[in-house]
Amino acid sequence: MPYRKMPPQVLRLVLLTVGVVVCYLLAKGILTPQSFDEYGHYRGSALQEVASQTPVYAGQQACAECHAKALEVVAKFEHKTVSCESCHGVNQPHIENPDVKTTRLTDSHCVRCHERNPARPGWLKQVASKEHYHGQRCAECHTPHQPNEI
Question: pLDDT (tens digit, 9 = 90+) per residue, 46-103?
């Protein structure tokens, strides 16, 4: 059987494939951190990095030091399981210096949880904000700390 020469286009495809695979393996070796796959399919050193970050959330107890009455009111209504910082934003700077104001609440804070979404549980009160009293702000009818009080 005579020796058949490989067509040049097939040879180019084989060389291109080999080149791509070599480039991929080199990039993977260079770009993959040493701690990857140490504790599973993620970067093991990420645990130390996250643990070393300074916390930015103050926590409910820090809010209770100055805002005990507000927390008592919240504890009687539906938002009792919601952290202060879920609505008011990160408050560690406010705890350290009370002159730093917290985030001003807008309707976007309410619809983060209460916009109608079939993926949310049925017990969570939801509204279609475009249909629900269009043109009014949530706080015109609802008190955020007492959402059922109208």
Answer: 888 888 888 778 888 888 888 888 888 888 888 888 888 888 878 888 888 888 888 7
Q: How confident is the model over 106-143, as pLDDT tens digits?
A: 787 788 888 888 898 888 888 888 888 777 788 888 87
- Domain of residue 91 covers 60-141
Residues with Cβ within 8 Å of residue 35, at least 6 apart in sequence: 43, 44, 45, 46
Secondary structure of residue 19 in the 3-state scheme: helix
Cβ within 8 Å of residue 58, ≥6 positions away: 85, 90, 91, 92, 94, 95
| Residue 121 lies inside a defined structural domain of this protein | yes
Q: Three-class SS of residue 65?
A: coil
Say if 96 falls within a structural domain.
Answer: yes
Number of domains observed in the structure of the chain: 1
What span, in angstroms and rounded, lies between the C-alpha atoms of 91 and 85?
7
Tell me if 73 is assigned to some domain. Answer: yes
Q: What are the start-end ranges of the H helices in 76-128?
A: 84-88, 92-96, 107-114
- Provide the whole-model pTM: 0.55
Domain-located, residue 26: no
